[in-house]
Write a structure and sequence with these properties.
The strands form 2 sheets. The chain has a 6-stranded mixed sheet with strand order 6-7-8-3-9-10, sandwiched between helices. The chain has a 4-stranded antiparallel sheet with strand order 2-1-4-5. Helix 4 crosses helix 5, helix 5 packs across helix 6 and helix 6 packs parallel to helix 7. By secondary structure, it is an alpha/beta fold.
Length: 236
């Protein structure tokens, strides 16, 4: 007898919100009497599983937008929603949990512990985020990003491109829903830039993450699913 499943995918629930949403967001930085408006009513939406590049000149608000999504800054006005939840309503404890579990950040400067090995950097990164990984599993993650032979090498002795790939491997080990990369290829030559970009694409494929990359690089922008151009704190 044929059995028909009564299960239906909850389409409306899963498709009703983007992975990242900014609604009429303003961000103003104050220094004494002086004020700098970094974002001016920014609206944008990134769909689940997309690889999106935030492109634009220096001072256009790209990194500020990324920091708001990571919960590292608070909006001056408007709303930031990640995975359907409003960060503007989060407590400090909830923001810390968001940074540890929902998002992984890859900065221009790799933020590795230079005296530790590549493998130990992956282990420690996951441990600080509240997770656990064995040294053997950390080596497997590094191998996935072409760094298995460098697992025992001190991070400070790695090339710039290798350091960025270690940071990306550490992000992959956390299996985050959102990966935020702030100028990850800014100081790399063209070949190393391609290697790091492929690592980010591999990360998306391996864990199904949504990836947002802040970049000045036209090559990185060309590889993205979409390019969002920012100027003067607004989406062009």
């Amino acid at each position: 007898m044929e059995v028909t499943s009564l299960w239906r995918e909850p389409e409306e629930e899963t498709l009703s919100f983007g992975a990242v949403e900014l609604h009429d967001v303003f961000k103003i930085f104050s220094s004494g009497p002086a004020e700098t408006v970094a974002l001016r009513g920014l609206d944008l939406r990134v769909e689940p599983g997309e690889l999106v590049a935030l492109h634009g000149p220096s001072g256009s608000g790209k990194s500020t937008a990324l920091h708001l999504v990571a919960g590292l800054e608070e909006v001056s006005a408007g709303e930031v929603r990640v995975l359907g939840r409003s960060l503007t309503r989060f407590s400090e404890h909830e923001l810390a949990r968001h940074r540890a579990r929902d998002v992984a950040i890859v900065f221009q400067n790799d933020n590795l512990w230079s005296e530790l090995s590549a493998r130990d950097n992956v282990v420690l990164s996951l441990r600080l985020a509240g997770g656990r990984i064995t040294p053997e599993a950390a080596r497997d993650v590094l191998d996935e990003f072409g760094l298995g032979s460098r697992a025992n090498t001190r991070a400070g002795a790695l090339s710039g491109g290798e350091q960025q790939r270690v940071a990306i491997a550490a992000a992959a080990a956390r299996r985050p829903a959102i990966v935020l990369a702030d100028e990850p290829t800014a100081e790399l030559d063209e070949e190393r830039e391609r290697i790091v970009l492929r690592a980010l694409q591999r990360l998306r494929a391996s864990v199904g993450a949504t990836v947002v990359i802040v970049t000045h690089s036209p090559r990185v922008a060309e590889a993205a699913d979409r390019v969002l151009e920012l100027r003067d704190g607004r989406l062009v």
